[in-house]
Write a structure and sequence with these properties.
Blueprint (H helix, E strand, L loop, with lengths): L33 H11 L1 H8 L3 H15 L3 H14 L4 H13 L3 H11 L7 H14 L2 H14 L4 H13 L3 H15 L6 H10 L3 H14 L4 H9 L7 H15 L4 H13 L3 H14 L5 H12 L3 H14 L5 H22 L5 H18 L6 H15 L3 H14 L4 H16 L3 H15 L3 H16 L3 H10 L6 H16 L8 H14 L3 H15 L5 H14 L3 H14 L6 H14 L4 H14 L6 H12 L4
C-alpha cells in the first residue's frame, strides 16, 4: 500500500507495505490495546474461570504475589513466578498476559515474542496476538520484521474490518500514523467500502496534516448520521486553531452543501465554521438558509444572533433580529428578538462608550426605542419587568436622569412585586437614595433585601452596601462586623471590595479615638459617590492638612488624585499619580498609581509615548506587581505590536 493510494487485494495476498518508516511522524497517542481489553475481561471473570477450569488456589496466590512484586519493581522475582504459572496453566490467559507485560517492562523482547508465538493459532483468533508480536518487534528495534508481521496479521483475515482495526490500534500505540493511514485506506479498498473507518481516518488525517481529507471524512460521518454534528464539531474544535485547518474545513463543508443542499448537518457545520472564522455575514447566510429550509420560524436565526452578539458582531446580529421581526412577526421567537434588539443596542453602546466612540449616544437612543417597541407590542409578556429594568439602567447610569430611573424602578415594584426584577429594582432604588443623600431610606432598603434574600450575590451586595453606609457615617465597628460576616465566594467584585474595606478598617483605626483621618476618607468617598467632586476635593485637602504623617495619608493622596480626574483636571491627576510612588514607594497603591497615570495619559490626554514610558516604569520598579502582566499587554497595544 502506498501512502495516499489504494490498492486491491489479489489472490488473498496483501500488497507489501513500504518498510522504511524511520521518517514517519511520531506523536504520543494513548489507546487501550486489544490485549489490554482482553486482559481486563479475563481478570473480571477470573473467579468463575478458576472454578470452571479447576485451577489450584495456590496458583491464584502465586499470581497475586507476582503482581505485588511487579508493583514493587522486583521484576526478576515476578517473572520467575509468572513463568511457573504459564507452565502449569498455559490456557489461562491472564497468566500469559501478565508474563508478556513483565517481559516487555524489562525489555526482554525476544522472550516476550517467543511467548506470544507459542500462543498464536491460525485464523482470526490469532489476529490480536500477531499485532502484539509486531508491536514487540518494533519495540525491540526490528522495524522490518514488525512491518512484515503487521502485514501478515491482515493477510490472515483480510475480509474482516476488525483485522484492519487491530493493526491500526497497534500502530497507533507506536505512533506510526502514516502507516496507520495506509492500513485503513487499504482496508477500505480491499473491502470495497468507502464508509469504513471514517472517524479513525479523520483523526489520522488531522494528525498528519491532511486537513481537507479529514474534513471530507467528517462530512461522510454526517452524511450517514446527521445527529453526529455535535461529535464532529467537537473533534474539529480540537484542531481548529492549527494552520490551514479552518480554511480546509470550510472549503470541504461548502462543497458538501453544494452537493447536498438539503442536508441540515452540512449547513450547521458550515455556519459554525464561518463563525469560527469570524465571517459573520457568511454565517448569517448559512443560518438563514437553515431557518427557511427547516421552517424554524426564526429560532435558528435567534441562536445565531446571540452568538454573533456575544462575539461583538453587532451588525450581523442586528440583521438577524430584524429578519425575525419582519419575516416571523407572530412567531414565538419574535418577542425575544425584539427584547434582544434593545439589549444588543445597549451592549453595542456600552462598547462604543468604552473606546470613546461618538456613536454611543445614538446607540443608547436606539436601545431605548427598541425597548419602547417591546413594551408597546407585548403587554403582559413575562419579559416586561426585565425590559423596564434595562430602561431604568440607561436612565440612571447613562443619562443621569435619576428621577425617571426612580420612577421606572418603582413601577417594577408596583406591577411585579416579588419578581427577580423587583429585587434588583429595590437595590437600585437604594443606590439612588445614597446618591441623593437619603441614607436612612437606603439603609432600610438594603437591610430588607439582605434579610429577605439571605443568600446569593444580591443579598451579599446589599450587606456590603450596608457596610459602606456605616463606613460613611463613621460607624466603623458596625462596618467591620458586616464585612467579616460576608462570604468570600460571592461575585469577585463584591468579595474583593468587602476585603478591601475590611483591610482598610483593620489597619487604619486610631491612634486617636476619633479616627479623624479615616472619617475624612469616608466622607470624601461618599462625596465622590454622590458626584460632589469639588466638596470631595476640599474635604480631602482638609484632612491631609490636619493628619501629618498618619499611615492613611497614602489612601487619601490616591483618593485625591482620582478626584482630580473626575473634575477634568487630567494633567494635575497625572502629576499626582506619578509623584505618589516617590512619596510612598512602599504603599500597596504605588503600582496602581502608575497604572492610573498611564491610563489617563493614553485614554484622556492621547499621549501614548508618555503612557508607554509610565507603564515601563511600573514594570521596572514593581516587577512583582499583579498589574505587571496587564501593563505589558497595554505597552504592546500602544506600540501597535499586535502580539
Amino acid at each position: 500500500m502506498g501512502s495516499g493510494r489504494r490498492t486491491a487485494a489479489s489472490g488473498g495476498k496483501l500488497t507489501p507495505m513500504p518498510a522504511d518508516i524511520k521518517t514517519m511522524t511520531r506523536f504520543r497517542f494513548r489507546l487501550p490495546s486489544i490485549l489490554l481489553i482482553l486482559t481486563l475481561l479475563a481478570v473480571a471473570g477470573q473467579s468463575q474461570s478458576t472454578r470452571a477450569q479447576g485451577i489450584d488456589s495456590t496458583l491464584v496466590l502465586r499470581y497475586q504475589l507476582a503482581e505485588s512484586y511487579l508493583r514493587a519493581a522486583q521484576f526478576d522475582r515476578a517473572i520467575a513466578l509468572l513463568e511457573g504459572l504459564v507452565e502449569r496453566s498455559p490456557e489461562t490467559y491472564v497468566f500469559f498476559d501478565k508474563l508478556r507485560e513483565a517481559y516487555a517492562s524489562v525489555k526482554r523482547y525476544d522472550e516476550a515474542i517467543a511467548l506470544v508465538d507459542r500462543r498464536i493459532v491460525p485464523g482470526e483468533a490469532g489476529t490480536p496476538l500477531r499485532a502484539e508480536k509486531a508491536r514487540l518487534q518494533y519495540l525491540k528495534g526490528d522495524e522490518e520484521a514488525a512491518l512484515n508481521t503487521w502485514d501478515e496479521t491482515i493477510r490472515q483475515v483480510p475480509d474482516r474490518p476488525g483485522s484492519y482495526l487491530v493493526v491500526y490500534r497497534s500502530l497507533m500505540q507506536m505512533r506510526l500514523f502514516e502507516k496507520a493511514v495506509e492500513v485503513l485506506e487499504y482496508g477500505r479498498s480491499a473491502l470495497n467500502n468507502d464508509e469504513l473507518f471514517q472517524t479513525d481516518l479523520a483523526y489520522l488525517y488531522s494528525l498528519t496534516g491532511r486537513h481537507a481529507d479529514a474534513a471530507k471524512e467528517y462530512l461522510g460521518v454526517l452524511e450517514e448520521n446527521q445527529r453526529q454534528i455535535t461529535f464532529v464539531r467537537g473533534r474539529l474544535a480540537q484542531q481548529i486553531e492549527q494552520e490551514d485547518v479552518l480554511e480546509a474545513s470550510i472549503t470541504a463543508a461548502e462543497a458538501g452543501v453544494r452537493r447536498q443542499p438539503l442536508n441540515r448537518a452540512f449547513r450547521e457545520l458550515l455556519g459554525w465554521l464561518y463563525l469560527e472564522a469570524e465571517r459573520y455575514e457568511d454565517a448569517l447566510d448559512a443560518h438563514r438558509a437553515i431557518d427557511r429550509l427547516e421552517d424554524e420560524q426564526g429560532r435558528v436565526l435567534y441562536a445565531f444572533a446571540q452568538q454573533a452578539s456575544d462575539a461583538g458582531a453587532y451588525s450581523a446580529a442586528l440583521e438577524a433580529y430584524e429578519e425575525i421581526l419582519q419575516r416571523y412577526p407572530d412567531a414565538p421567537s419574535a418577542p425575544e428578538a425584539r427584547r434582544a434588539t434593545g439589549t444588543l443596542y445597549e451592549r453595542w453602546a456600552d462598547r462604543s462608550a468604552e473606546i470613546g466612540d461618538a456613536s454611543a449616544d445614538s446607540l443608547y437612543r436606539e436601545a431605548m426605542a427598541a425597548y419602547g417597541r417591546f413594551i408597546e407590542a407585548h403587554a403582559g409578556h413575562e419579559l416586561l419587568p426585565e425590559v423596564h429594568f434595562r430602561l431604568g439602567r440607561i436612565h440612571r447610569e447613562i443619562l443621569m436622569d435619576f428621577d425617571t430611573a426612580e420612577a421606572t424602578y418603582n413601577l417594577i415594584l408596583d406591577l411585579w412585586p416579588g419578581s427577580s426584577a423587583a429585587e434588583r429594582a429595590s437595590f437600585e432604588l437604594a443606590r439612588l437614595a445614597v446618591l441623593s443623600d437619603r441614607m436612612g431610606e437606603a439603609q432600610t432598603r438594603y437591610a430588607r433585601l439582605a434579610d429577605e434574600l439571605r443568600t446569593g450575590e444580591l443579598a451579599e451586595a446589599a450587606r456590603f452596601e450596608l457596610a459602606l453606609i456605616h463606613f460613611y457615617r463613621g460607624e466603623f465597628e458596625a462596618a467591620l462586623s458586616l464585612t467579616e460576616s460576608m462570604k468570600e465566594n460571592t461575585s469577585a467584585d463584591v468579595s474583593n471590595d468587602a476585603i478591601g474595606l475590611k483591610v482598610l478598617l483593620v489597619e487604619n483605626r486610631g491612634p486617636d479615638s476619633l479616627d479623624v483621618p479615616l472619617r475624612g476618607l469616608a466622607s470624601a468617598r461618599l462625596l465622590v459617590r454622590q458626584q460632589r467632586f469639588e466638596d470631595a476635593l476640599a474635604a480631602t485637602d482638609e484632612v491631609l492638612a490636619a493628619v501629618g504623617n498618619h499611615p492613611l495619608v497614602d489612601e487619601l493622596m490616591f483618593e485625591r488624585a482620582g478626584i482630580l480626574v473626575s473634575l477634568g483636571r487630567a494633567e494635575d491627576a497625572v502629576s499626582s499619580f506619578k509623584e505618589f510612588p516617590l512619596i510612598h514607594p512602599d504603599s500597596h497603591l504605588a503600582d496602581r498609581s502608575l497604572f492610573e497615570a498611564a491610563r489617563i495619559e493614553s485614554e484622556i490626554l492621547g499621549r501614548e509615548a508618555d503612557a508607554t514610558a509610565t507603564l515601563t516604569r511600573l514594570i521596572t520598579d514593581y516587577p512583582g506587581s499583579l498589574l505587571a502582566s496587564e501593563a505589558r499587554t497595554r505597552i504592546r497595544t500602544l506600540r501597535g505590536d499586535g502580539t
